[in-house]
Hints:
Blueprint: E1 15-19, H1 34-43, E2 48-52, H2 58-67, E3 77-80, H3 81-86, E4 93-97, E5 110-111, E6 120-123, H4 133-140, E7 147-149, E8 155-158, E9 161-164, H5 166-175, E10 180-182, H6 188-197, E11 204-208, H7 211-220, E12 224-228, E13 247-249
Amino acid sequence: MRIDGLSTIATQFGGMLIDQFGVIHDGQRLYPGTLRVLTELKALGMPVAVMTNSGKRAAANVERLTRMGVPRDCFVDAVSSGEVAYGTLTVKRALLIGKDGEDYGFDGIEFVSDPGQADVILILGSNAPRTSLADYRSLLSGLTLPAICCNPDKWMLTPGGLAPAPGAIASLYEELGGNVTWIGKPYPAIYRHAARLIGSPERILCIGDSAEHDVAGGRHAGFQTLLVMTGVSAGLTPSQIHPMPDFLMDDFRW
């Protein structure tokens, strides 16, 4: 069902899980309808968790949202794949795959450059386009360490367009024979965590820009789904969307 705005269906739900990149903002600035939507949901008393396949922990994502202009009282909390992954870790040393200069907040984990000293590969981010998939293939070839991908997204928004995201690097490692544990959308742990944060209402709507992650993950969790045709879905036609969501909307608007 195609809808013009979220107001058409909002009162059917007891809580919402809303994707960050590609729905709320484009990585640099908020989309034009974001503040209106979030303030209207607040006025309805709707509990909202911002869900993100970000390798950074929840606090860093909350800080990003508020810095970009999202009022802190418009959402219960951010739920990141990095936060969910961090809560499961028992290792002490890791080989980090991430963006140069980023602090992912994984306190207590020692990042080492020698794979022989690492217990696991943590795929938290992507240095693309500076580091190509061919570069990552060279780096990962021959390694036998288990890997944890803390951001299953295959593509990410950059000022230059879409670039390979951590999920693409993790998929490459699997192609090379590596063992990867995936944490984040569309996998179930992040949905259980997010639902608890908003009080586990009976009817939850998942809103995102990726059918592969947001729609598939929400559906598998037993929730209804809304796909916004921005972010990684910009320019797609309905025939290119799989799986299909319960609702389609051109952009994030009330």
